[in-house]
Amino acid sequence: MARVLVVDDAAFMRKVLTDALAKGGHEVVGEAANGVEAVAQFQELHPDVTTLDITMPEKDGLEALREILAADPAAKVVMCSALGQESKVLESIKCGAKDFVVKPFQADRVLEAIGKALA
Amino acid sequence: MTTEEALKALGESTADAVLGVLSSLCADGVERGPVAVVAAGASPLQSIPAPSVAANVSYVDGVTGGNVFVVTRLGARRLAAVMMGQEPPAEDDANELDELELSAVGEAMNQSMAAAAGATGHALGQEVEISVPETRLLAAARDAEGVYPATPHATTVTFSLLGEPCRLIQLIPNAFVVRMTRALNDRVAEQHGDTATNDAAPALSTQAIRELGVRVAAELGRTTLAVGRAVALTPGAVLELDRGADDPIDLYVNGRRFATARLLLIDETDWAVRVEQLLDPAAALRPTHQGGN
Question: Given A49, A68, A79, B41, which is the most exposed site by the fewest CB atoms within 10 A?
Answer without folding.
Answer: B41
